[in-house]
Amino acid sequence: MHRPCAYCGETAGLTREHVVPKFIYANNPLGKFGYNPRADAFVTWEAQIRDVCARCNNERLSVLDSYLKTFYEDNHIDKLVTEEKTIRLRYDYHLLCRALLKLTYNGIRFRGGDILLVKPFCDYILYGVDLPGHLAVKISAEVIPCHRITDHERTLLEGEAMTWSYIPPHVIRLGQMGGTAAEHLFVRYVFVKNYCFYVVIFQRSMQSQTLHKCFASFTDALPDTVFLDVAKKAVTLRVSGIDALDKYSDTALSLAEKWAAYVGKKG
Asked: Is 19 a member of any domain?
């Protein structure tokens, strides 16, 4: 007996869906490396999950992957952000929102997390229909610059890295944001190189005063993030004053012991 498709619910032969679109892995081969807390192991391959029917995978979801590729190329996501003060980001709101929700849903299933607040968006992801009646979603974007290498830091580097001016962020990360806002808002992030996108899901029934406080807490924690306007096609983002090395330091420190053990096993 076939298991139901994670998106449409039909019982059909299931195929492998890339958690992150394959073209992003192709453009960022070092971005394959990550940590999966469910397996308590480092991932060194293109993460996939086998729970999507062929029709959803090859027809409905591929439309969103195609849009993400266009978005990626049009906004020059591969270009390192170094000395820029502002970045102009062009987007189609609903296609970008659907694509980010897809990545979010894929990432949660891959890690074995709770899909309760994301599953209701499946019809919106697949077909672009109305959002679920009891839930709402907002997306925001943040640009985090590369870390400029100091003369002292350069002495600690080896090989080609000694010639770099900046540390390039070979990053593809999907995860969940904590903090005060997370008590009422479900916040997931999608990092690709210098760009971070936040998917914020909340109950429509939430009292306006509570909602206002939650979003105020969110923007206080992330002062350089900007919520995208559904009626617009572009936004100017101020490049964050926090660079990529500082942004990822907490995660790196939390995995330091696991990394040492991983390197030890590799010899």
From this structure: no
Quickly count: other Cβ atoms within 10 Å of residue 112's Cβ: 11
Query: Which is more confidently placed, 46 or 23?
Result: 23
Write out the two tokens for 118. Answer: 């994301």
Number of domains in the chain: 1
Residue 82 within a domain: yes
Q: 85's torsion region: left (phi>0), alpha (psi -120 to 50) or beta?
A: alpha
Give 48-100 pLDDT, tens digit per residue.
Answer: 999 999 999 999 999 999 999 999 999 999 999 999 999 999 999 999 999 99
As a whole number of angstroms, the distance between CA 194 and CA 115 comes to: 27
Q: What integer is the mean pLDDT of 8-22?
A: 91
194: containing domain: 73-266
Taking 60 as the threshold, does the pLDDT of residue 258 lie above it? no
Q: CB neighbours (10 Å) of residue 94?
A: 13
What span, in angstroms and rounded, lies between the C-alpha atoms of 248 and 102?
24
* Inter-axis angle of helices 61-74 and 93-110, nearest 10: 110
CA 67/CA 58 separation, integer angstroms: 14
Residue at 260 is within a domain: yes
User: Residue 50: phi, psi to the nearest 5?
Assistant: -100, 75
The token pair that represents 51 in the structure block: 């729970």
CA distance 195 to 240: 10
Cβ atoms of 184 and 211 within 8 Å: the answer is yes
How many Å separate Cα 99 from the centre of its chain? 10
Is there a domain that residue 105 lies in? Answer: yes
**How long is the chain?**
267
CA distance 87 to 82: 11
